[in-house]
TrEMBL record:
Its EC number is 2.7.2.8. The record marks 8, 223 as: Transition state stabilizer. The gene is argB. Pathway: Amino-acid biosynthesis; L-arginine biosynthesis; N(2)-acetyl-L-ornithine from L-glutamate: step 2/4. The lineage of its organism: Bacteria, Pseudomonadati, Bacteroidota, Bacteroidia, Bacteroidales. Its main location: cytoplasm. SUPFAM superfamilies: Carbamate kinase-like (SSF53633). It catalyses: N-acetyl-L-glutamate + ATP = N-acetyl-L-glutamyl 5-phosphate + ADP. It comes from Alistipes onderdonkii. It is an enzyme of class 2 (transferase). It holds the Pfam family AA_kinase. GO terms for cellular component: cytoplasm. It comes from the Bacteria. This is Acetylglutamate kinase.
């Protein structure tokens, strides 16, 4: 393989059928080997509210008790994952939906309860790059949700941006890998309500100032931090961009 492209899709795009169809068509047309990683938090949040389960978020990360774990597993590994796989099949891309437990693809450990007890939330420990290579070599496109496992029978809810970063690092052991985070904004914005305030480039140094100044906050924090981790450890490039611009050379480049 000359190159592997790992794309993470999330945000409002998952909830917008028209936008999602357009994104899946663009993703299917990407040349070469590719992997899709998806979130789906808004749907899980709505279902939790209907079931009167409290939703708690800290710095863009969901606190997951047992009831919430059941919901996010049903939504992420079930409904959303299979809708994406079906959409890719319709677009001519042979896809296979996976959680971390499937094929022992991704292992995680439950996060320590200090200083914040996130419940059944996991941090990625390892990615089965051999399995990825076998699937990609057979012309199959893996589609990962954010539900991982600890190898002891426990499922864990992981941040989808962290999953994408870790999967990209695993893929980088097979071939040069590019990571793209797609959502409903044109990239990292100085003003989230103004698309003209796009930040073209972020480095580790500039990120520290952006976070301290509150410009990068909430759900954007894990996205940028995982992008920085990826480029520091072997991923060739990382871009954060609007889902409509997947095939265009735009967005925020992480260096």
């Amino acid at each position: 393989m000359e190159k592997i492209t790992v794309v993470k899709i999330g945000g409002n795009v998952i909830d917008d059928p028209a936008a999602l169809r357009g994104f899946l068509a663009d993703f299917a047309s990407l040349p070469g080997a590719k992997i899709l990683v998806h979130g789906g938090g808004k749907l899980a949040t709505r279902l939790a509210q209907k079931l009167e389960l409290q939703v708690q978020m800290v710095d863009g990360r969901r606190i997951t008790d047992k009831g919430t774990l059941d919901i996010v597993t049903m939504v992420y590994a079930g409904l959303v994952n299979k809708q994406l796989v079906a959409g890719l099949q319709a677009a001519g891309c042979n896809a296979l939906g996976l959680s971390g437990a499937d094929g022992n693809a991704v292992m995680a450990r439950r996060r320590a309860p200090e200083p914040i007890d996130y419940g059944f939330v996991g941090d990625i420990e390892s990615v089965n790059h051999t399995l990825l290579g076998e699937l990609l070599g057979a012309g199959v496109t893996p589609v990962f949700c954010a539900i991982m496992h600890d190898g002891q029978g426990t499922l864990l809810n992981c941040n989808a941006d962290s999953v994408a970063s870790s999967v990209a690092l695993g893929a980088a052991r097979i071939a040069p890998t590019e990571l793209v985070f797609c959502f409903e904004k044109s990239g990292v914005l100085r003003d989230p309500e103004d698309e003209t305030t796009l930040i073209r480039e972020i480095t580790a140094e500039s990120y520290a100032a952006l976070k301290a100044g509150g410009i990068v906050s909430k759900g954007m924090i894990p996205k940028v931090e995982n992008a920085l981790k990826a480029v520091a450890n072997g991923v060739r490039s990382v871009t954060i961009k609007h889902s409509e611009n997947l095939l265009n050379d735009t967005g925020t480049v992480i260096r």
